[in-house]
């Protein structure tokens, strides 16, 4: 940017926003076309300037995007074992030291919890948790709802099924060798939304979604409604907010910030 233009922007618009970390693309690799619809092939015969023409997704389609691991379109994921080691993309879920339990996003650097299909397991895909956070500096003015022991099948050693207790339990178990797991922010959850997929997430690296439409709680409280918090619905990729008393799903994250 020209020095004069930069000075003008700072004086008139305020400090320029700086991207703090790399971002994922949308996963949209099709284009919109008047006659071919919204799932048309992304090529030069269709209107220019569309999402599929730019970014990591376009580079992946052109074969020019280097990936550390694997993933659809511009996404780049690696499977991580219970002992913290990188696994092959064919690795299976398991509780042993070499079993797959986490997924690393090689673009953002975030590590994500992976769900299992076992009601007796701490990380079962169907377990629900009320939104609860007693940290007055981050709870938006309201701790939320403590919950009961039933919605997570009693897997929290007698503690109520809420987001705070779940974070504590996963850290005590040292998932993938780490004890700094936390609730993701709304923006972090949105970073793994794949709008080019149905459901809107890479099912190879994030398997075992619930059998019905559901949402994943973020750790982000609503700024104006003290009793609500933000969530992301991976059935369609949309973000919204709802009462902290709802029994939402949780996918923990570590790293970043």
Task: Describe the model.
There is one protein chain. Helices cover 13% and strands 17% of the residues. The protein has helices spanning 3-13, 55-62, 163-172, 186-190, and strands at 30-33, 37-41, 77-81, 100-105, 111-113, 216-221, 228-233, 238-243, 253-254. The strands form three sheets. It has a four-stranded antiparallel beta sheet, with no helix packed on it. A three-stranded antiparallel beta sheet has the order 6-7-8. A two-stranded antiparallel ribbon has the order 1-2. Residues 1-19 have low confidence and may be disordered.
Any descriptors?
257 residues; alpha+beta; three-stranded antiparallel β-sheet
Q: Quick summary of this structure?
A:
The protein is α+β, with helices and mostly antiparallel strands. The protein is built from four helices and nine strands; from the N terminus they run H-E-E-H-E-E-E-H-H-E-E-E-E.
Structural class assignment: alpha+beta
Approximate strand percentage: 15-25%
Basic shape: globular
Distance between the termini: 28 Å
Mean pLDDT: 90
Low-pLDDT stretches are 1-19
Provide the spatial order of strands within the biggest beta sheet.
Answer: 3-4-5-9
Helix content: 10-25%
